Every structure is written in structure tokens, then in C-alpha cells.
Amino acid sequence: MADNTGILSILECPVCLEYIVPPIYQCDNQHILCSSCYKNQIHCPVCRVKLKGARNLCMEKVSEYILYPCKNEGIGCTIQLRLYEKRAHEWTCHGGRQYKCLGTITGEDDSYCDWTGLREDIDNHIRETHRLLINNSVDGTFNLSASAMVDYKYILFDDRLFCVIIHTDPLRTSCLQKVFTSFFHMFSITCEGENSYAYNVKIEGQDDTFEGFVGKMITSHTDVKDLATKNECFHFMGNKHTFSFEGNIVKV
Fold first, then answer.
1. Res 12 pLDDT > 90
2. Which of 133, 201, 141, 203 is closest to 168 using CA atoms?
3. Averaged pLDDT of the chain
4. 158 by DSSP, 3-state: which?
5. Share in percent of the chain as helix, strand, coil (round to 5)
6. DSSP type of residue 191
7. Is the pTM of this model over 0.70?
8. How far apart are CA 222 and CA 168, in angstroms?
9. Do 197 and 214 touch, CB atoms closer than 8 A?
10. Does residue 96 contact residue 76 with C-beta atoms inside 8 Å?
């Protein structure tokens, strides 16, 4: 594969130092900068002439034929791609980041799973090692129960694997009453499922039905509290930490 490092250095934005992709803006002296930085500049950051909104169509054409590094180059991805391939690759790329198994317990010996691997391998790991924990759903409906303070449930629908995480904390305890606060979040094991599916869920004993989009993958049950502050997961209170819930997943 030809080395195009020299051309890439020409396409480096003088403000953010990132590689420039179209639209590529220039000043009267043909100094180029990326579209994001252009919005915040009045004068050229190199020669200080006033910017007039001119585009460098020649460099935009050149950019279509060179190889750009993946945005995850800094965390291990070594792939170089043309622009038309770059976005699709980066949608699923997580560099060389290692993920832990999502806190599941194996059905064989009830010990915590110590598997680690790439995100694209998590799906196969769960299907092969934790297949007894997967709940198959033909039409997207599910009816499950949470039995621990931190519980994970897997749902297989539309040949995609979804994970439900329920994190429950004791909020207040007295001799007369126990109150728990619970967080319910559903995400796709694979990147392709993010924001492509919606779901609704109703908790046993609760009046409200929560509706939301299948969200982004999280790697720790503590992250679900942060999602609650953004209204990206279901947050509710009750007098017990074990409960049943039912709902439906639909493709959008």
C-alpha cells in the first residue's frame, strides 16, 4: 500500500491539527482549514487575511483518493481508508480497546466470567458461553424478572443481541419501610443496533410505561446513573429490589 503521509500532512488543519475532510475552506492565499474551525474564524489562522467562504475544490477532489487513518488510531486501530469507507468503518470500530464480559455469571458453575476481548467479539462470546442466559423473542416482546441488586438480561430479537441492565440501590431504610431506587437501561451488544431500535417497558407494580431508544453500550453498571440524568434510561422507585418487567422491542 502506497504511503500518502506527505499529502495527509498538507491536509492537516492549522487550528485543530486534525486531518481535513470536505468541505475544505481556504483563504485568498490558499491556506486551508476544516469546516468546523472555519465556523469559528474570521481571519486565516496562518496569514491573517479575512476569510471569504472560498472552497478549495482541488484539495477536496484529492482527498477522495488518499487514505485517511481511522479516528481510533490512538487506541490501536491501524487501518487506513478512503473517505467513502471511513465513516462506515468508524461506526463499528473501537480500536484495540479491551472489554470485559458484562458481569454475567456462567450457568455451569455460578462464577463470574473473566472474559475480555474486542467489542466485535462480545456478541459471539455471549451466544457461545452464556447461551443459557439468552431469552429468545420472535416478535420483540419480553417478560423477565430482576433478582439481584445488579442484574443483566439478554434478549435475542431480529438476530440481534440486546442487553438489559438493572441497577438497584437502597435509598432509605427504616424499621417500617424499605425504599429502593432502580435504573433500567437497554442497549445493543453490536453498534449497528444503537438508535435503530426502540423499546417500551412496564415494571410490575408501577403505573407508568417507559418508552425510549435502545441506547449505547456501557461497560459498567455505575454508568447507568449518568444516563438517568440525561433521561436516557428508566429510573423508578419501589419497596423491593426484586421485580418483574415486560415490554416490547421494535425496529425504527
1. yes
2. 203
3. 83
4. coil
5. 20, 35, 40
6. G
7. no
8. 10
9. yes
10. yes
User: Residue 87: phi, psi to the nearest 5?
Assistant: -65, -45
| Distances in whole angstroms, Cα of residue 143 to Cα of each of 59, 110, 167, 213 | 56, 23, 18, 18
178-216 pLDDT, tens digit each: 788 888 888 888 765 566 899 999 988 888 888 888 887
**Is residue 100 included in any domain, yes or no?**
no
d(CA 72, CA 63): 19
Q: Map grid coordinates 440525561 to a residue.
A: 230
How far, in Å, CA of 152 to CA of 148, rounded?
9
- What domain range is 25 assigned to? 5-92
Q: Is 99 contained in some domain?
A: no
Q: Is 127 domain-assigned?
A: no
150-157: strand order across its sheet:
134-136, 150-157, 160-173, 178-188, 234-238
At 1 the pLDDT is 47
